[in-house]
Design brief:
This protein is mainly beta. Helix content is 6%, strand content 41%.
Protein backbone atom coordinates (compact mmCIF):
# COMPACT_ATOMS: atom_id res chain seq x y z
CA UNK A 1 0.00 0.00 0.00
CA UNK A 2 1.33 3.43 -0.95
CA UNK A 3 1.61 6.27 1.49
CA UNK A 4 -0.22 9.58 0.93
CA UNK A 5 2.84 11.27 -0.59
CA UNK A 6 3.28 8.45 -3.10
CA UNK A 7 -0.31 8.76 -4.27
CA UNK A 8 -0.03 12.54 -4.62
CA UNK A 9 3.16 12.18 -6.65
CA UNK A 10 1.41 9.88 -9.12
CA UNK A 11 -1.44 12.37 -9.66
CA UNK A 12 0.86 15.38 -10.00
CA UNK A 13 3.93 14.39 -11.98
CA UNK A 14 7.05 16.41 -11.24
CA UNK A 15 7.79 16.92 -14.94
CA UNK A 16 4.44 18.69 -15.37
CA UNK A 17 5.18 21.26 -12.68
CA UNK A 18 6.71 24.68 -13.07
CA UNK A 19 8.36 26.84 -10.43
CA UNK A 20 6.33 29.89 -9.48
CA UNK A 21 6.43 32.31 -6.56
CA UNK A 22 3.71 33.59 -4.25
CA UNK A 23 3.54 36.31 -1.61
CA UNK A 24 0.92 36.32 1.13
CA UNK A 25 -1.01 39.44 2.15
CA UNK A 26 0.21 40.70 5.51
CA UNK A 27 -1.34 44.09 6.25
CA UNK A 28 -1.59 47.64 4.97
CA UNK A 29 1.52 49.62 5.89
CA UNK A 30 2.29 53.34 5.79
CA UNK A 31 4.25 54.46 2.75
CA UNK A 32 7.57 56.28 3.16
CA UNK A 33 9.19 58.79 0.82
CA UNK A 34 12.85 58.84 -0.29
CA UNK A 35 13.97 60.56 2.95
CA UNK A 36 12.27 57.99 5.18
CA UNK A 37 9.32 60.18 6.19
CA UNK A 38 5.80 58.75 6.33
CA UNK A 39 3.56 60.14 3.58
CA UNK A 40 0.23 59.33 5.24
CA UNK A 41 -0.67 56.96 2.38
CA UNK A 42 -1.19 53.25 2.99
CA UNK A 43 0.12 50.53 0.69
CA UNK A 44 -0.63 46.83 0.74
CA UNK A 45 2.05 44.80 2.51
CA UNK A 46 3.05 41.32 1.35
CA UNK A 47 5.49 38.69 2.56
CA UNK A 48 8.68 37.98 0.65
CA UNK A 49 8.10 35.71 -2.36
CA UNK A 50 8.08 31.97 -1.64
CA UNK A 51 8.87 29.51 -4.42
CA UNK A 52 7.05 26.24 -5.06
CA UNK A 53 6.30 23.91 -7.95
CA UNK A 54 2.78 23.41 -9.28
CA UNK A 55 0.91 22.30 -12.40
CA UNK A 56 -0.10 25.25 -14.55
CA UNK A 57 -2.59 25.12 -17.41
CA UNK A 58 -1.97 26.83 -20.70
CA UNK A 59 -3.81 30.09 -21.18
CA UNK A 60 -7.53 29.53 -20.98
CA UNK A 61 -9.39 29.14 -24.25
CA UNK A 62 -13.03 29.02 -25.22
CA UNK A 63 -13.07 25.20 -25.43
CA UNK A 64 -12.00 24.67 -21.81
CA UNK A 65 -14.33 23.64 -19.03
CA UNK A 66 -15.57 26.33 -16.67
CA UNK A 67 -14.78 24.80 -13.28
CA UNK A 68 -15.04 28.21 -11.59
CA UNK A 69 -18.21 29.33 -13.39
CA UNK A 70 -18.93 31.36 -16.48
CA UNK A 71 -18.82 34.88 -15.00
CA UNK A 72 -15.38 34.63 -13.33
CA UNK A 73 -12.64 36.23 -15.42
CA UNK A 74 -9.38 34.26 -15.19
CA UNK A 75 -6.46 33.39 -17.49
CA UNK A 76 -4.89 30.19 -16.11
CA UNK A 77 -5.59 27.43 -13.64
CA UNK A 78 -3.01 26.13 -11.17
CA UNK A 79 -3.63 22.66 -9.73
CA UNK A 80 -1.93 21.05 -6.75
CA UNK A 81 -2.36 17.92 -4.65
CA UNK A 82 -0.91 19.88 -1.73
CA UNK A 83 -4.14 21.05 -0.10
CA UNK A 84 -2.41 22.91 2.75
CA UNK A 85 -0.81 25.68 0.69
CA UNK A 86 -1.73 29.03 2.32
CA UNK A 87 -2.69 30.64 -1.01
CA UNK A 88 -6.01 32.52 -1.02
CA UNK A 89 -7.72 35.34 -2.96
CA UNK A 90 -5.39 37.98 -1.44
CA UNK A 91 -2.21 36.27 -2.65
CA UNK A 92 -0.09 37.66 -5.51
CA UNK A 93 1.94 35.45 -7.88
CA UNK A 94 4.99 35.57 -10.13
CA UNK A 95 4.28 32.96 -12.82
CA UNK A 96 5.96 34.13 -16.03
CA UNK A 97 8.68 36.16 -14.33
CA UNK A 98 11.06 35.64 -11.41
CA UNK A 99 10.89 38.15 -8.54
CA UNK A 100 14.03 40.20 -7.87
CA UNK A 101 14.78 41.29 -4.31
CA UNK A 102 16.57 44.49 -3.30
CA UNK A 103 19.21 44.77 -0.55
CA UNK A 104 16.47 45.08 2.12
CA UNK A 105 14.72 41.89 1.00
CA UNK A 106 11.77 43.72 -0.59
CA UNK A 107 10.63 42.79 -4.09
CA UNK A 108 11.71 45.07 -6.91
CA UNK A 109 9.74 43.08 -9.50
CA UNK A 110 5.98 43.60 -9.54
CA UNK A 111 3.84 40.44 -9.50
CA UNK A 112 2.28 39.36 -12.80
CA UNK A 113 -0.78 37.38 -11.59
CA UNK A 114 -3.40 37.57 -8.85
CA UNK A 115 -5.56 34.77 -7.45
CA UNK A 116 -9.21 35.17 -8.44
CA UNK A 117 -10.72 32.03 -6.90
CA UNK A 118 -9.69 28.95 -4.91
CA UNK A 119 -11.52 25.64 -5.38
CA UNK A 120 -10.59 22.96 -2.84
CA UNK A 121 -11.61 19.33 -3.01
CA UNK A 122 -10.71 16.37 -0.84
CA UNK A 123 -7.47 15.52 -2.67
CA UNK A 124 -6.53 18.65 -4.63
CA UNK A 125 -6.90 22.39 -4.90
CA UNK A 126 -7.27 24.56 -8.01
CA UNK A 127 -6.52 28.25 -8.29
CA UNK A 128 -8.02 30.50 -10.97
CA UNK A 129 -5.44 33.23 -11.65
CA UNK A 130 -5.61 36.46 -13.66
CA UNK A 131 -2.77 38.37 -15.34
CA UNK A 132 -2.38 41.96 -14.12
Amino acid sequence: MKNRKGVADIRSLERNKQKIYYALYLDDVEEMDEEGNYTGEKITGYSNPIDFKINSSASRGEASTEQFGISLDYDKVLCSCDTILPIDETTVLWVDIKPVLDENGATKTKHDYIVKKVAKSLNSVQYAIKKV
